[in-house]
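Supplementary Methods. Inverse-folding protocol.

Structures were first reduced to a discrete structure-token string of length 403. This string, shown here, constituted the complete conditioning input.
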């Protein structure tokens, strides 16, 4: 749950701050440690990359966490806040909860409890499990299968390359199920051995999941001992969701066939983004809106050229690459609009030849016409109405563009 997340840590105490930072990094999270209120406020208000949550001490040497939270609320909706407080600051913490903050913890606290509360805070963010996964038929089918398997109670295997959204889909399966009230525990690799999950970590994760969901990332990396334990404990009350790479098969790896058969009884395949480019643009627009809202001076939007470039790129890193490029581009952009050079600066550095403007426009027109026809179920008259053109004009454009 914490892997890949980005946190702002506002804490002046060296011992406390160092302990939290080290543990979050061990969990795979990115941490921006800020020790003064004067530096924390601008860093949270206009971050270089989106911040998923803020961990903030109430008492700081040059101000207070309450002042930081209040200042952020006056300008825009702040990210979720988890306040850290001493016994004497509990009344202030309660006041902050009434003002909209998400949670607080009283010192001293167990690190495991802190991680669980932080994970719960992230899950509690507004997240509609029924929201679309995209606009393509691939996305619609994925959403349908997700809803179908969520209503069942069998293990689910999510297959896909890196960056295709396996963790997000696992969370969606949990949120749509009857176990949504219970914990969602994500287990990746052990701290001692980054290539697999050891038995101790697996046992602990199963206990923490209780009657909830255990998500096992890269299940193909489980060693034989862990596979045996997992097979025995599958009936212990938790639900298992696992993910693997696109080419995983017990025939080509030392993986137990009996365990694989249990996992593969319900399988969802997430294809690479290159196979459904319309979802790349849909996702880019959503990411852009979220990242752009954190800028001191927001951009006007994605240019038509940027949209065409997004559709043309093959996205070997899938959604993760798309997000990384957009976050970097929005943070570094100097104009009013985002252009291909902002998203793909390496192409400019390498002197790559740009496509003619006419080709870009034709590609954009072709995409919009195809989308309109899909929404109109193939009826040209309705598609023309959606596009705001006459049926004759639509017919001429379809002939010209080879549709």
């Amino acid at each position: 749950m914490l892997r890949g997340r980005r946190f702002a840590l506002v804490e002046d105490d060296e011992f406390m701050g160092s302990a939290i930072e080290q543990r979050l990094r061990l969990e795979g999270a990115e941490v921006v440690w800020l020790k003064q209120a004067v530096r924390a406020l601008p860093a949270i208000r206009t971050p270089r990359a989106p911040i998923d949550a803020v961990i903030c001490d109430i008492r700081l040497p040059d101000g207070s966490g309450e002042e930081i939270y209040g200042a952020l609320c006056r300008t825009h909706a702040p990210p979720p806040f988890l306040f850290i407080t001493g016994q004497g600051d509990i009344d202030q913490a309660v006041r902050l909860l009434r003002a909209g903050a998400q949670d607080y913890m009283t010192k001293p606290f167990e690190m495991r409890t802190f991680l669980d509360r932080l994970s719960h805070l992230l899950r509690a963010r507004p997240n509609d499990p029924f929201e679309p996964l995209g606009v393509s038929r691939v996305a619609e089918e994925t959403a349908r299968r997700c809803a179908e398997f969520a209503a069942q109670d069998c293990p689910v295997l999510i297959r896909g390359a890196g960056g295709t959204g396996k963790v997000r889909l696992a969370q969606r399966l949990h949120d749509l199920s009857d176990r949504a009230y219970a914990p969602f525990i994500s287990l990746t690799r052990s701290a001692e051995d980054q290539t697999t999950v050891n038995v101790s970590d697996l046992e602990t994760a199963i206990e923490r999941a209780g009657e909830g969901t255990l998500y096992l990332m890269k299940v193909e990396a489980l060693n034989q001992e862990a596979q045996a334990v997992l097979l025995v404990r599958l009936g212990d009350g938790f639900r298992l969701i696992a993910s693997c790479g696109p080419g995983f098969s017990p025939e080509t790896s030392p993986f137990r066939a009996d365990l694989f058969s249990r996992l593969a009884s319900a399988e969802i395949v997430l294809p690479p983004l290159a196979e459904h480019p319309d979802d790349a643009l849909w996702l880019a627009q959503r990411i852009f809106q979220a990242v752009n809202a954190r800028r001191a001076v927001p951009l006007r939007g994605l240019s038509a050229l940027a949209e065409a470039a997004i559709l043309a790129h093959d996205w070997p890193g899938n959604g993760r690459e798309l997000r990384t490029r957009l976050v970097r581009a929005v943070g570094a952009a100097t104009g009013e609009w985002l252009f291909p050079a902002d998203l793909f600066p390496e192409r400019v550095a390498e002197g790559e030849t740009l496509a003619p403007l006419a080709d870009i426009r034709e590609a954009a027109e072709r995409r919009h016409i195809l989308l309109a026809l899909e929404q109109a179920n193939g009826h040209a008259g309705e598609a023309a109405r959606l596009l705001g053109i006459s049926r004759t004009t639509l017919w001429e454009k379809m002939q010209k563009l080879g549709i």
